[in-house]
Amino acid sequence: MLQALTYTAPQAARDALAWRHSILPQARERAAQLGLAEALFPWRTIAGRECSGYWPAGRASSHRRPSR
Prior knowledge:
By secondary structure, this protein is mainly α. It has helices at 2-8, 10-22, 24-33; strands at residues 45-46, 49-50.
């Protein structure tokens, strides 16, 4: 989605990246709770915290890129 926004709506892409940067500490905390070393951004959120009713099971819906 970010690639399309970068081309079609650069300000929206900037806002999306700024938001993700602002919740990076919560994303790292969530990853640590699930035993992961990276950041895991929420699937559903209010103020950066995961608000899915079954967030540990929600790991299956996370979007992760392979380690390099």
